[in-house]
From TrEMBL:
Pfam families: CobU. It comes from the Bacteria. It catalyses: adenosylcob(III)inamide + GTP = adenosylcob(III)inamide phosphate + GDP + H(+); adenosylcob(III)inamide + ATP = adenosylcob(III)inamide phosphate + ADP + H(+); adenosylcob(III)inamide phosphate + GTP + H(+) = adenosylcob(III)inamide-GDP + diphosphate. One of its GO terms (biological process) is cobalamin biosynthetic process. It comes from Methylobacterium terricola. Catalyzes ATP-dependent phosphorylation of adenosylcobinamide and addition of GMP to adenosylcobinamide phosphate. The active site is at residue 47. This is Bifunctional adenosylcobalamin biosynthesis protein. GTP binds at residues 6-13, 31-33, 48-51, 59, 80.
């Protein structure tokens, strides 16, 4: 399992796609984004246009742990991205965030093939001014720490350059 972290437009998704594409296909892309507006639809289309066969896409804005568990054994899986998933869970007032985080961690630990997770590192900025944004930053940081503990490799991408924080270079 590899955790790829980086800021917005850092090159983290492209780097993660390259890790998966270096493995024998077919590859599974688990997308967590939801197209709520034109700008988000454009972002999703941009990501989709970068991927050609043998990519298969599964939409999992909320049921991320289940999507990872259902991946065929041995199939390389790319999840992009955890912070969008976290947003989706946090905005659902009925969600059990601790329970869903535990289910995600368990699915990642039990993945039956190569797994690459992409997430935004949001802890480098200033303290947000509103409570929801502060909670999001804190929850993302806690999730990243827990995933980094079980990951074989952790990579921080800055300006398109991967920096290996844990594990062997790819």
């Amino acid at each position: 399992m590899t955790l790829v972290l980086g800021g917005a437009r850092s090159g983290k998704s492209r780097y993660a796609e390259g890790l998966i594409a270096a493995l024998p296909g077919p590859w599974l892309y688990v997308a967590t984004a939801q197209a709520w507006d034109d700008e988000m639809r454009e972002r999703i289309a941009h990501h989709r246009d970068r991927r050609a066969a043998p990519w298969e896409t599964v939409e999992a804005p909320r049921a991320l742990g289940e999507a990872i568990r259902q991946a065929p054994a041995g199939r390389p899986v790319l999840v992009d991205c955890l912070t969008l998933w976290l947003t989706n869970v946090m905005l659902d007032e009925m969600a059990d965030l601790p329970g869903e985080a535990e289910a995600l961690l368990a699915s990642c630990a039990a993945a039956a093939g190569p797994l690459v997770l992409v997430s935004n590192e949001v802890g480098f900025g200033i303290v947000p001014e509103n409570a929801l944004a502060r909670r999001f930053r804190d929850e993302a940081g806690r999730l990243h720490q827990r995933l980094a503990t079980i990951a074989d490799r952790v990579v921080l991408v800055v300006a398109g350059l991967p920096m290996i924080l844990k594990g062997d270079p790819a």
